[in-house]
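Notebook B, p. 112. Complex prediction, attempt 2.
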Amino acid sequence: AQSVTQLDSQVPVFEEAPVELRCNYSSSVSVYLFWYVQYPNQGLQLLLKYLSGSTLVKGINGFEAEFNKSQTSFHLRKPSVHISDTAEYFCAVSEGGSTLGRLYFGRGTQLTVWP
Amino acid sequence: NAGVTQTPKFQVLKTGQSMTLQCAQDMNHNSMYWYRQDPGMGLRLIYYSASEGTTDKGEVPNGYNVSRLNKREFSLRLESAAPSQTSVYFCASSDFWTGNQPQHFGDGTRLSIL
């Protein structure tokens, strides 16, 4: 089964600073990669996804992520964060084979943006 | 456009009681999922339904049962609730069981078992 590691459980940052949330997954022949965001007392919303093609993918709210196959990583970045970006962020991976449609989630990274 | 609707939003149960969590989606999706979210654990898959008429166990199925009532609805049942089942439960749906389809989530059911 796929294993997804989010290296930081909490990331505090000041407003307008850049941020990177790290995600690594266990190796597989082919994977699909997702980042979701969860605001307090809400469900998860899709930020961006990598299916194929360009390794740099852009999502909503100014976020982007880069797929690095050799390092099995899919780190999420934003050049300048806002207070409203405070939320929990989840990296998720799906793979081929018998578990085709299943999503494996990391444990989440709480991003807190301070004024 | 409601997306994925879960009911109830909150529930408190006593140990040993049973209840059913309801989920409905209006996006004509084929696949549906039930997750539980516990602090520091991310989301763990309980059961899923790749298509109408099929259900399969996920990572943590013990103590739960599911029913895919029709294409829109997928319910989760706790037959005899235990304190370890205190959690936030999320239902999700996706277009197909192909891995490249993003999942759409409901707002969750917050369940406490005393």
